[in-house]
Amino acid sequence: MAVDLLDFDLEGLAAFCEGLGEKRFRAVQLFRWIHQKGASDFDAMSDLAKSLRTRLAGDAAIGALPVISEQASADGTVKWLFDVGGGNAVEAVFIPEDDRGTLCVSSQAGCAVGCRFCSTGHQGFSRNLRTGEIVAQLWHAEHRLRARRATAGADAGPGGAPLRMVDNVVMMGMGEPLQNYGALVPALRTMLDDHGYGLSRRRVTVSTSGVVPMIERLREDCPVALAVSLHAPDDALRDMLVPLNRKYPIAELMAACRAYLPVAPRDFVMFEYCMLDGVNDADAQARALVDLVRRERVPCKFNLIPFNPFPGSGLERSPPERVRAFQRILLDAGFVATVRRTRGDDIDAACGQLAGEVRDRTGAQARLARRRTIPLHPQNVARSLR
Ligand code: SF4
Predict the structure, then answer these.
(1) Helix, strand, or coil here: 173?
(2) For residues 176-184, average pLDDT
(3) Which of 9, 131, 154, 277 has its CA 20 to 30 A from that of 85?
(4) In the predicted structure, residue 382 carries a pLDDT above the cut 70
(5) Which atom of ligand 1 is nearest to the CA of 108?
């Protein structure tokens, strides 16, 4: 079976080339062809010896993922659905903004964490993606966007704005990236490598629901920007919204964040907070959030995310005035608190809608259906406020 070269960071590719009797500089050339030039045909790699190209064509491949669909929103957002085999599909979403182009990348087909407000979590877990399948999402998006710019012109974005490329990656698509750590780290290294995509550490973000031991390992192995899906100011409520909290409660999570920051490329943690009507959006909960991060001494910013309802969730989006009131309490306490702008609504590309057709092999749907019978509101919420 052909070796997928997208599975390798530069060190891995150097070891592979060494196995073929080639020097390290050949790996650098090959890496640049693949990631910087988007080549998928070894014959096009004109500065590699013909004998090496022939060998690579026989033993290796550049594992582009089959594209099931590409949808472009009127606001410039683009969503790709990739086939990862076995009836599984994952999504990547490109979100152009004034000052940057962000690609949201998936790390797993499905997700085992089962967050209450997340459509991916409701599908259950199918499997981890390989490094190559994570990198292939960026490889495809980057070179597809470049090709579009070459044909459409640099200023062909919405309203004549500059067409942006990927200069920001968030591991915030399907899956919990820190539960696929072995594949994640080489993928991050490829994103950061100057011979690869050359992204700065500040512009690569790992978003986690709170896998505490892996936050600690990431700090050692490949510190990039950190976002944490918090969604509740206390353990009682977070246990229900983010089941992983029962294993790694908030105090442990905050300690891991504190320890991460001295080596992080940004001097704050971004706390994501999905706004759920009548569940976690009360003034008292905003004040509890302020108390929590002050007590735990975690420099942070907040990103308030309007919930994207999906069938069977049993949850509603907080009204805009409630979101604004919640945000005001955080702002008045001196924190940066943004409200995520909904993007790609016309193509269902917003956060929490990264669905795809992922098989439920774990019975998660049934478990979640049972959990949905536990009312979150009002008595459980009242308990969380005590
Ligand atoms: S929010 Fe993230 S960690 Fe939670 S179920 Fe969804 S994909 Fe998994």
Answers:
(1) coil
(2) 98
(3) 9
(4) no
(5) 7
